[in-house]
Amino acid sequence: MEICFWGTRGSISKAGLSTVRYGGNTSCIEVRSADGTLVVLDCGTGAHGLGRELVASSTPPRQGHILITHTHWDHIQGFPFFAPLRVPTSEWNVYGPHGADRSVRETLAGQMQYAYFPLALEDLGADVRYHDLVEGVFEIGDIRVTTQYLNHPALTLGYRLEADGVTLVYATDHEPHSRRLAMAEQIEQESVPGEDARHAEFLADADLVIHDAQYTAEEYPSRVGWGHSTVEYVVDAAVAADVDQLALFHHDPLRDDDSVDRLVGLAKERLDATGTSLSLFAAAEGRRVKLRRRSLARASAADGAESALKKPIGAVRDQSVLVAVADRALAAVLADAARAEGIDLLTATEGDAGAIVRATQPSLVIVDRDLPGLDLPTLIGSIRGKSGEYGAGVGIVIISTREDPEAQRREREAGASDWLLAPVTAMHARARMRAWLMRTACRWIRAPRPADEDQRMCALNDLYVLDTEPEERFDRHTRIAAALFGVPIALVSLVDTDRQWFKSRHGLTTTETPRDAAFCAHAILGSEVLHVPDTLADDRFADNPLVTGEPHVRFYAGVPLELDNGSTVGTLCLIDQRARHLSPSELRLLVDLGKLVVRELESKPVE
Asked: Among residues 87, 115, 127, 281, which one has the fewest Cβ atoms lying within 10 Å of its Cβ?
C-alpha cells in the first residue's frame, strides 16, 4: 500500500514562506493498493495538486474513490477543483457521512451553488456516484474499509483501510472524550471508558495511523470542545494500540514549520519515555510512505460488523431523545440540539425519568448523574432489563460536569453506553446525538463468518463447481422450486469468500452479489431454513441494498446446503417481491428439495 500526502493543514489553508516544509494545503491524502485501487482521503485544497498530477500522468485513472470524513470546508473545498472529476471517460465514487437531512451529495452541491462557484455539481464531466455512510464496513476493490464516528462538532467518520496484509487508519478531526486523556494524564488502559476505548480499538495494530494532533496539552484548556486532539494524547493512544508508525496531521494554521518541528520534538520526548519502537513523524506535503506486511494480519476489525453502506435517509428523524438533566442551561442546549436535528424531545425532571422511559421507550436517553431523586443504576438496569431489541440496543448516555472514574466503572457495569462531559455546545451535542442514533437507526446486519469458515471454503472449492457453466441437473431444481412455491426467483447460491455465486438461477439475470449483502450468508450459519416473511419488518435486512434496490427482496427462505462432511456451502433459496409466509409443511418440502441439490453437488455429472 502506498500513501502520499497532498494536504496536511487543518482549519484553513496557509500557504507562504513559513509553511514550505510541511505544506499549507488542507487535508488530502492519496492511497493506492498493490492491486491498483485508488482512494483519496478527504478533498481539501490539496486535492487540486493531486488532481492535476493524476490527469497529467501517462495513464490517468479511469476509476477512483473519494472518502470524505466530514463536510467542513477544509475537507471539501478542493472537490470542485479536482481535475479528474471533469474527465468524461472516468468514474468516481464519493463516500461520506450522511447527516440528518442532507446527503453528502447535497452538501457538496451546496458549496457549488451559483452564489459561490461558476460550475454546478451536474456540470462535472465524469460519472460521479455518491454513497452515504454510517458506521460499519464496506469494500472498495481489494480494500476493506471500516468506518467509525469520531468526536467533532460535525458528524465525522474515521476510516480504517485494510489491504495487502497491512492496515492504515485515518482519524482526523477527533477530540478525546475524556479531558483527562487530552490533558496528557496517564490512565490505565482498562479504565478508559466508552468511546475512548472504542477509538483505541479502531487504531489497534495499525501499520500507519494518520491522526489529528492539532494542539498541545498546554493549549487545550482554551480549545475544549473544538473537536481536535492533543499531540500527547495521540502518542499515548498510538503506543497503547501497538501502532507501527504514527503521522501527526491536521497542523494548526497558526503553526509555522519551526513550530511543527517543536511539536514533533515534544511528541518524540513523550515517545522516548515509553521505550517503544513506534516510528513518528509529522505529515508533510509530498511525503510518500510505503507500507509492507510486517506480520500476519490480525483478524479484521470488520468481522461481524454491520455494513456502512446502509441507506440512512430518515434514520434520525422520527426518533426521540429523553433529556433528564438538573441544570437548566445545559437542558436548553441539549433541547436546541435535538430540535435542530428534527428529533422528538422528551424531558424529565426529578425522579420521573424511569416512568417516561417505561411509557415512551425513547431512542436515546441522556441522563444527568446528579439529577436529584434519581437512582441511576436502577434506571439503567430497568432499561437494559426490557425484553427484545429495545432493552439491549437503546443508547444510555451519562452527562456530568466532572470525570469520575469510579462512577464510570459502576455505570459501565450497569449498562451505560457512553459519557458526555459538560459544558457542551449545541453544535457538539448535535453531532453526538446524530452519531448515537445512527448506530441504532439503520437496519442491516452483515453476517459474521462461520466458526468453520476455513474448512467450509475448502469443502466448497473441492466441489469444483464455482464459476462453471449452467447445468440442467441444477436448473431443474430451481424451476421446480419456483413453480411449487409460486415465487418469481429461485436460486442455488454458493457462498464464496467475498461473494455469493449462483450455480443455478431462475428469474434472475445476475450471476453473483457481494457476500456482505447476501441473505444466504446468514442462512449458512444455522442448520434450519432461514425464513424471512417480510424483510421490511426484520432489522437484519430492512436497509439491505438487495431490499432497497434490485431485486427488491421482500420475502426470503433459504435452506442450508450441508455436505456429508458437515460443511455448509450455500443454500437453495426462494425470493419474492411481496411479503409471504411458508407453512410448516412447505418448510419441510423446501428442506427435501435442498437435500436433492446437495446430492447433485456431491455427485459427478453424467457424461
From this structure: 115
